[in-house]
Amino acid sequence: MAVYTHVPSEEMAAFLTRYDTGELVSAKGIAEGVENSNYMLETRRANGASERFILTLYEKRVDEADLPFFMDLLDHLGANGCKVPRFIADREGQKLQQLAGRPACLIEFLSGISVTEPTPAQCLAAGRAMGELHRASEGFAQERRNALDLPGWHDLADKCGTHLDDIAPGLAARVTQELAFLDAHWPNALERGVIHADLFPDNVLMSGDAVTGLIDFYFSCTDIRAYDLAIMHGAWCFAADGGAYHAARGASLVRGYTVAHGLSQAERAAFPILCRGAALRFLLTRAYDWINTPADALVTRKDPLAYLRRLDFYAQANPADLLGA
Ligand SMILES: Nc1ncnc2c1ncn2[C@@H]1O[C@H](COP(=O)(O)OP(=O)(O)O)[C@@H](O)[C@H]1O
Ligand SMILES: N[C@@H](CCOP(=O)(O)O)C(=O)O
User: Fold this and answer.
1) N or C: which end of the chain has fewer CB within 10 A?
2) Cβ neighbour number for residue 163 with a 10 Å cutoff
3) Which residues sit opposite 51 in a β-bridge?
4) For the Aminoglycoside phosphotransferase domain, which residue ranges apply (predicted)?
């Protein structure tokens, strides 16, 4: 359950009077997500027309100072043909508000559902959507450092320390060994650009095989572009429990991306290493949350070991199996 901050309905209704959205009819906390508090709002205008919105209160990892970057990026991507939600301004032109003591924004609602076990056709469409996103972001001039880059993984591993071994015996040593490998082999020279950095199936809204929306840009940053595809590969191409690898999903995802954006020889050659880095990144953030979130907290902790299994897979994978022919 990701509603960390409870907003009384009177406060929510008063908040909405700042906007041209009509009056609040219903507000429901959204169970999905782990980072922020999200509510689905329904409003009704004087003419009876109803509309839906997302209300997000920023918690935990989102720094308020980064919100203008995310807002400008989504404006830019939307203007360049990507299906991303707009941040909605109040009557005075303000998009960033305070609600219940937290930074908060009203956001356009996009329809669609997230898939759990994607088909190759859905992977193709999702890969294409990421390729289009990377193309569309080429004219975006702002930059944001990725705090969860290789030095950031070292920091996280240090913070987790020997508690990693409470999750699985030997995990601390495995992480140290992997960091040493990545320090020696990370492909820093690859092309960089704006990346989403968390384009998991739950952040892609779909209708059948078509992508209807890309959401949750709160990790977006400037980093190696093909690393974004590697993150997607780990998130889309394994059984939901992190078990079996589905080669047909991997081939379709990469094909969709390649059609929309292209993937250079250097990016292909480095892809297994990028996948190892992506797997370690999610292993570490999940492990950190596992260690630091009480077992009875309202949020469902995500399993770090599902990413250890992916890491082990990528460490011995044949590149052709990851990329398709
Ligand atoms: N713009 C949107 N349109 C429709 N649904 C959304 C939108 N933004 C968020 N959601 C819903 O809220 C859930 C949590 O949002 P998300 O941004 O992923 O939260 P978190 O940052 O906490 O992980 C999503 O899985 C989706 O169901
Ligand atoms: N995708 C990450 C967690 C971040 O959650 P999201 O709901 O913001 O995508 C993971 O699976 O570890």
Assistant:
1) C
2) 15
3) 43
4) 27-259
Does the structure show a pLDDT above 80 at 277?
A: yes
Domain ranges for the chain:
9-108, 120-323
Q: Which is the closest atom of ligand 1 to the Cα of 216?
A: 17
Q: Does the pTM of the predicted model rise above 0.90?
A: yes
> Which ligand has its closest atom nearest to the C-alpha of 35?
1
DSSP 8-state assignment for residue 248: H
CB burial of residue 36 (10 Å; 0-12, 13-18, 19+): buried
Q: Count the neighbouring beta carbons within 10 Å of the beta carbon of residue 210.
A: 13
Choose the residue to mutate in 236, 302, 305, 309 for probing ligand 2, maximizing ligand atoms within 8 Å of C-beta: 302
The ipTM is 0.95
**Ligand 2, atom 7, residue with closest C-alpha:** 33
Q: What architecture is the 9-108 domain classified under in CATH?
A: 2-Layer Sandwich (3.30)
- The tokens describing 179, both together, are 């960091």
Residue pLDDT, tens place only, 2-25 = 788 899 989 999 999 999 999 999
| Secondary structure class of 55 (helix, strand, coil) | strand
Between the two ends of the chain, the Cα-to-Cα distance in Å is 41
Phi-psi category of 108—alpha, beta or left, where left has phi over 0 and alpha has psi -120 to 50? beta
Give me the CATH topology for the region 120-323.
Aminoglycoside 3'-phosphotransferase; Chain: A, domain 2 (3.90.1200)
**Domain 9-108 matches domain 120-323 at the CATH topology level:** no
Which bound ligand lies closest to the C-alpha atom of 284?
A: 2
Which ligand has the minimum distance to the alpha carbon of residue 148? 2
Atom of ligand 2 nearest to the CA of 36: 8
